[in-house]
Specification:
Keywords: Signal. This is G-D-S-L family lipolytic protein. It comes from Flagellimonas iocasae. This protein is α/β, with parallel strands linked by helices. The protein folds into 2 domains: about 325 residues, SGNH hydrolase (Rossmann fold), CATH 3.40.50; about 110 residues, no CATH class. It contains 16 helices and 17 strands. The strands form 7 sheets. A 5-stranded parallel β-sheet has the order 6-1-7-8-15, sandwiched between helices. Strands 2-5 form a two-stranded parallel sheet. A hairpin with a 2-residue loop joins strand 3 and strand 4. Helix 8 packs antiparallel against helix 14 and helix 9 runs parallel beside helix 14. The longest helix is centred in the last third of the chain and has 24 residues. The chain starts with a helix and ends in an 18-residue tail after the last helix.
Length: about 500
């Protein structure tokens, strides 16, 4: 008991101390001090194609332009001395445009300018459908620049250097781009010339996707132009020669860095990872027993002709197996396709065309989903596309064509990495980023997951090629991280949840 009394004075002092320290603890974190580091963001200019412009849902429209990744970067840069960021806005949120009052803007050599897609619901289920209405953007109404966002949808690397690419007169012959026509500084202007004339203090460059993408989305129907140094001889859906790409990119960077500008450059994603190639299965055909029997009978002569030529060693046993066409009752029948890499047998028999059934290694393009099952001849109910009538080359990217895409992409990305080092630029590995989006997705602050799944994943828009606004926000953060690492900057992040994963109207 005496020990207890002896402790009381100390207990009193303890209680007094507790009363004196009863002030609530402030757990508010110290404010982040943002800094530009060694970079100067006062005059930021973005150069590239549709990915830079903010293209989404198969169109360029005002809300998409506002949600472009360069506009997000500019908002972050504004916290550390960044200036205004001017955008050549479309006139509305429809995305469609006219040329001289004509709504058919799909001129030879030019990107199609139709309305954006929305997810419409019909008896057969939800499907991407152009939004109704006529766009109020008139291509011939020249905008007054200069503009900080120099993203030109549809442009290839070498086209950014082409004089007259913004020429109205050039549209009719496929030598100009309608989007650049709207805001080019003159009939002989180049995209890079107009960008460099602004004397940027900082730039972003993301170009080259269309040098490989247009070949891929066209089902490999174009030509691999490797070894051809003359891009004026290329078709729109041809693969660009890697040396032409390298020379073009070097010339672009020379122009942008001529006055000492810093910048950031991104490599190109594997185009076969995007929903445009991962959504339509190779075997979507359901058949009843009677139809399967009818089809097998119809292909019987073709199969027998193949077997005969295999016995004569004209084709291998493996190719015979690859080309033999059979159907079964039920779900999961593979479509029939044209494959130009098969042995040409038409010299032996004109009916033995280069066709086979698709396998899991073939990539059907997204637009094939609305073509398979239609009739090649409306008067013939048996002329079913993809079943009785093989799908043409443009609907399928075969393994051989995928190899050409991979080879071109590897060469382009090697050039981008090397030039990023040579010009001492920040580098964004967009290829790895979008591969991760496909493989695992990205967990957001609210616990939701953004993936590359078509229409539902939140990362891509309804064209299956371009990111959604939320996808662009994820890309913007990758650009910001690369800039911070290179220039010692501390910049505000972009919150992807502030941007939609899918426009609903």
């Amino acid at each position: 008991m005496k020990k207890l009394y002896a402790l009381l004075p100390f207990l009193g002092l303890f209680l007094i101390a507790c009363e004196e320290d009863s002030t609530p603890i402030d757990n508010t974190p110290d404010p982040i001090e943002y800094t530009a580091g060694t970079a100067d963001f006062s005059n930021y200019v973005a150069v590239g194609n549709s990915l830079t412009a903010g293209f989404s849902d198969n169109a360029l429209f005002r809300a998409g332009q506002e949600a472009s990744f360069p506009n997000m970067l500019a908002a972050s840069f504004a916290q550390v001395g960044g200036g205004s960021f001017e955008i050549p806005f479309m006139a509305d949120n429809l995305g469609g445009a006219t040329i001289g009052g004509e709504t058919d803007a799909n001129m030879d050599g030019s990107p199609d300018i139709g309305n954006r897609l929305i997810l419409a619901f019909a008896a057969s289920g939800p499907a991407p459908t152009p939004v109704a209405g006529t766009g109020s953007t008139e291509i011939t109404n020249k905008l007054s620049g200069p503009f900080n966002n120099m993203g030109v949808p549809g442009s290839k690397s070498y086209e950014l250097l082409a004089p007259g690419y913004g020429s109205l007169a050039g549209l009719a012959i496929g030598a100009a781009n309608p989007y650049f026509v709207r805001f080019s500084s003159g009939e002989s202007a180049t995209v890079i010339g107009d960008a460099a004339a602004q004397n940027p203090s900082f730039f972003s460059l993301w170009t080259g996707a269309n040098d490989v993408l247009l070949y891929a989305t066209g089902g490999g129907a174009g030509i691999d132009q490797a070894g051809n140094p003359d891009p004026s001889s290329y078709a729109r859906n041809d693969l660009t020669d890697p040396m032409v790409f390298a020379g073009s990119l070097d010339a672009i960077l020379q122009a942008l860095t001529a006055n000492g500008a810093d910048g950031v450059i991104a490599n190109l994603p594997n185009v076969t990872d995007i929903p445009y190639f991962t959504t339509v299965p190779h075997n979507p055909v359901p058949l009843d027993e009677a139809t399967a029997t009818l089809l097998n009978g119809a292909y019987g002569a073709y199969n027998a002709g193949l077997a005969q030529l295999q016995q004569l060693s004209v084709i291998t046993e493996d190719e015979l197996t690859q080309r033999t066409i059979t159907f079964s009752p039920g779900e999961g029948n593979a479509v029939v396709i044209i494959d130009e890499d098969l042995t040409d047998l038409t010299g032996f028999n004109p009916a033995l065309i280069n066709m086979r059934q698709a396998t899991a290694e073939d990539l059907l393009v997204l637009t094939a989903s609305t073509f398979i099952g239609t009739l090649a001849n409306p008067a013939d109910p048996t002329s079913i596309n993809g079943v009785a009538v093989p799908l043409a080359d443009r609907w399928v990217l075969t393994p051989e064509e995928q190899t050409l895409v991979e080879n071109a992409l590897a060469a382009y990305n090697q050039t981008i990495q090397a030039l990023a080092t040579a010009y001492d630029l920040a580098f964004v590995d967009a290829n790895s980023l979008l591969n991760e989006l496909k493989a695992t997705g990205f967990v957001q602050a609210d616990g939701s997951l953004v993936t590359a799944d078509f229409a539902t994943g939140g990362g891509f828009s309804l064209d299956g090629v371009h990111p959604s606004p939320r996808g662009y926000a994820i890309l913007a953060n990758a650009f910001l991280e690369a800039i911070e690492d290179k220039y010692g900057a501390v910049l505000p992040d972009v919150e992807p949840l502030n941007y939609t994963g899918l426009y609903i109207n």
